[in-house]
Amino acid sequence: MGLLLLLASALLTSHFHTGSQVDAQTAFTIRSVRLTIEPGTDVARGTDVTVRCQAAVSSSGQETLTREYTIYKEGIVVYTKTTSSSEDFLYPLSEARASNSGKYKCKVSIQSRSLESNAEKLTVTGLSDPVLHLKKGVVTEGEDVTVRCTAPGETGSFFFYFYDNSKEIYGVQANTNQTETTLHFATGIHRVHCTYTVFILPDSFKSNKSNTVNVSVKELSIMPFLKVSPQSMIYEGDRLNISCSVRGYLPSSESIELHLSRENDLLSTGYSEISHSMLAPANVPELRFECRLTSGNVVKVVTNNVPVTELFSTPTLTVSPAEVFQREKMMLTCKSQRYATERINESELTYTLDPEERARPTMSRGVFLSTAPPEDINYTCTAEAKGIKKQSQALALRPKVSVSTPFISVLGTAILGQTIQIHCDTAKGSLPINYTLIKGYEPVAWKTVHLFSEKAVFSITINKTEDIKQYMCAAANSHRGELLGERLSANVIEPLTWATLSAVPDLDDLSEGQQLHLICKVKGSMPVTFKWYRVGSAIPLNITTVQQKHKDYHVPVLSKEHNGQYYCEATNPAHIMVRSEELSIEVRLALWKKALIGGMILLVVSLLVLAMCVLHYKSKRDAAAFYDGKEGRATNGTRNSMASLPADISNRSSYSIPATV
């Protein structure tokens, strides 16, 4: 037991001691990885190539590190090896082939660390020449020929091509360096060779030509035979008999099959002999028949081109007159211009019209009378003789609509003295339509309307309002002549020429409290828009539009505030504004105010006169009393003193005052 404990202790001690040494000895870094290709990156086929991977690793101990080398070609792993050697890792490519071409890269991994080199591209030029092998060089017509093409020593993905007399006849893809297939050749001598292409993505390399092998194909003594009766002078409608048969001997046991056809139509099938009968169709100047023999891989064909003469030409359908109007008479003519006089005469040609409900035939062959319908219609006609029918091209009949009575109108507003646009139009009628503007009974202007978007517009000037009624329109689009419309009836606006402003009551009779009517009057067409202004203000006092040539602005109660200058402006649809002269308004006092003021003045004057009289009387009385009390005193207050007399008395030089005793 003690021995076991000692051994366990020793092992544990050894384990922990060794682990610490590894940790101390495995400190390292991969400084660089470099890949080189020897002897070079561009080599010829068959060269021994070495891909060298050099890893520069720095470590802190003496223990050898285990390295894993991985070689990549075009990003795909091609080789991996683990080694403890610090020597360069070599990846050999013995006798390099084109398939070895590509970009190579090396990765070095140590423990959990790794580092990759830069990529280097290897290009191997040159491919081995392909080898062609045939099992048989001489075969019979229809016999298979087995061929094999080999690319010696090459690897990769291939595409093989086979050629007959330098013309590619077959191609196949293969994952090995050889392919085998069977080919079929026509009779004669054939020079066969092959080539191949190696695909090394993203590039491809093409080989040289292989050896050439001759293949001789002997013809079988068997042929199809085609017979057409009659052989010449065949007209449309003639019966043809066609036969297809086999001539010769077939040595093998292969069955024979015959096919008789015309263009893409299979007429008959069989084994030894087949036939077909038909009428030479119309409008086919040449018939091509084919007799085809098939036996295994053998296919033989014989053809015969049979010309066919026209029995009569395709009819043409025309209409008269050239311009047809709805519900008018018209004539339709169906005619074949040529026919084979040696086979038929003109009386044998019959003509029909489609649709025939609207037309009736005449005594003349191929001529039909009808009435043009109110809608568009397509007509065709058919000529027939000896069972051959030929149809004309469709005649698209688009009956025109006769113009209706034109009407006349004014575009916009008709203003006297200004240019007016008159529009002529119709409710219906096919284009083009010719319009004529007439004044009185004389044409003055013309216009042709070719498009629906166009308008017949004429510019005129009216100097008198009554002149507007002299104009009318005429319209025409057919041979039947013009249609005349009614005369123009339109309102002509006369521009305003002057404006006057007057007042009611008279300006001399205006006083406070009265009503005032400022009447603006104009000359011109209605409606009229009136505006009244007070000088000094751009805002109108009133605006109104009326169907009359005068209008008033009403002031219900006048006051001194209404004193000032007034004027009016007016416009009508001619948009020419006229302005009146200014009118001066002066409002006087009311009569009762005048009477009151007069009475007050009289009262004041009376009071003043009365006051003066009282004062005058009082002053006289006071003066007499004073004189009587003071007369004759001395200056010291005696009666004889002059000092105390009133001024008017003391100054009286002519008066002598008697002394009083």
UniProtKB/TrEMBL annotation:
- Superkingdom of the source? Eukaryota
Q: Which PROSITE patterns match?
A: IG_LIKE
GO cellular component terms, A-Z: external side of plasma membrane
GO molecular function terms listed in the Swiss-Prot or TrEMBL record:
transmembrane signaling receptor activity
InterPro entries assigned to the protein according to its UniProt record, in alphabetical order: Ig-like_dom (IPR007110), Ig-like_dom_sf (IPR036179), Ig-like_fold (IPR013783), Ig_Fc_receptor (IPR050488), Ig_sub (IPR003599), Ig_sub2 (IPR003598), IL-40-like_Ig (IPR040878)
Ig-like domain: which residues?
399-489, 495-584
GO BP field: cell surface receptor signaling pathway; cell-cell adhesion via plasma-membrane adhesion molecules; immune response
| Entry keywords, A to Z | Disulfide bond, Glycoprotein, Membrane, Signal, Transmembrane, Transmembrane helix
Residues that span the membrane, as ranges: 595-617
Signal peptide positions are 1-19
**Name assigned to this protein:** Platelet endothelial cell adhesion molecule isoform X4
Q: Which organism is it from?
A: Parambassis ranga (Indian glassy fish)
Gene that produces this protein:
pecam1b
